[in-house]
Amino acid sequence: RIAYVNGRYLPHSDAAVHIEDRGFQFADGVYEVCEVRQGMIVDLTRHLTRLDRSLSELRMASPMSRAALTTVIREVLRRNRVRNGLFYLQITRGVARRDHYFPSQDTPLTVTITAKSTDPSIMTRKYANGIKVITVPENRWDRVDIKTVGLLPNVLAKQQAKEAGAQDAIFVDRNGIVLEGASSNVWIVTADGELVTRPAEYGILRGITRTTALDVTAKLGLTVVERDFKVDEMMAAREVFLTSATGICVPIVEIDGKPVANGHPGTASSAIRDAFFDVAEKTAI
Ligand code: PMP
């Protein structure tokens, strides 16, 4: 495997950053994960636009033009022979003696990109069987709209899910309002048949897959209501599913040990998934 580190393509085993990197010291950095299918990068423009937003919210300049970044991403994918898989891109505020204040303006940002192939059969199984999740109390900061590498609450929540025999965790606020998964957005089809996902103005990351799934539903003629919903409404739902770049649209069949509806994946999630790749932007490697 080959990784990109600050202008160089290195064997994965040699790809390293300095111990005084601000990503390592302070989680002072942002990232993106993009899905690759059949040799096509999915929704690259939207991911790079969100990256620009994350950088600007942390008051970091773009390290290179979008065209240059796209060239490097393609090169990493090519060198790793990825046709189905993903790339991971991370940008931190660079290397500087540990001090909370921003380093001097001329400190170069650290840019790293890795890529890997994934086994499509793992996702096929999740689509067929659905996954189990647990709910966990929200304990993150209130800028989760920025895609920063500070993911400790998400890590702890996912591990808790794993130890409970589940595959993912859903953050719930103190009023019982469902926020998002540890690395995904949450959708429900209510007992009345209403397709709902919560607004993305605050409290969650505005998932790129969520945005494209909204385009998909429009194309399919499905009405989506963007509103808050609580845990009890989710537990009584006909269907619950998650969207994320790597999972696209994954049905949930059990929450906190209780089945969702009849305990089988529903039809809305499969309809969105089936039309997703046609609607999404595709950029050839
Ligand atoms: N919420 C969180 C907290 C995430 O980490 C992710 C995955 N990056 C998402 C939502 C889904 O976003 P996307 O569809 O862009 O992958």
From TrEMBL:
Pathway annotation from the record: Amino-acid biosynthesis; L-valine biosynthesis; L-valine from pyruvate: step 4/4; Amino-acid biosynthesis; L-isoleucine biosynthesis; L-isoleucine from 2-oxobutanoate: step 4/4; Amino-acid biosynthesis; L-leucine biosynthesis; L-leucine from 3-methyl-2-oxobutanoate: step 4/4
InterPro entries on file: Aminotrans_IV, Aminotransferase-like, BCAT-like_C, BCAT-like_N, Class-IV_PLP-Dep_Aminotrnsfr
Record keyword Amino-acid biosynthesis present: yes
EC number from the UniProt entry: 2.6.1.42
Recorded catalytic activity of this chain's protein: L-valine + 2-oxoglutarate = 3-methyl-2-oxobutanoate + L-glutamate; L-leucine + 2-oxoglutarate = 4-methyl-2-oxopentanoate + L-glutamate; L-isoleucine + 2-oxoglutarate = (S)-3-methyl-2-oxopentanoate + L-glutamate
Enzyme class: transferase
NCBIfam families reported for this sequence: PRK06680.1 (NF005209)
Family: Belongs to the class-IV pyridoxal-phosphate-dependent aminotransferase family.
PANTHER family named among the record's database cross-references: AMINO-ACID AMINOTRANSFERASE, AMINODEOXYCHORISMATE LYASE
Its job: Acts on leucine, isoleucine and valine.
Keyword terms of this UniProt record: Amino-acid biosynthesis, Branched-chain amino acid biosynthesis
Protein name, entry field: Probable branched-chain-amino-acid aminotransferase
Transmembrane segments: none
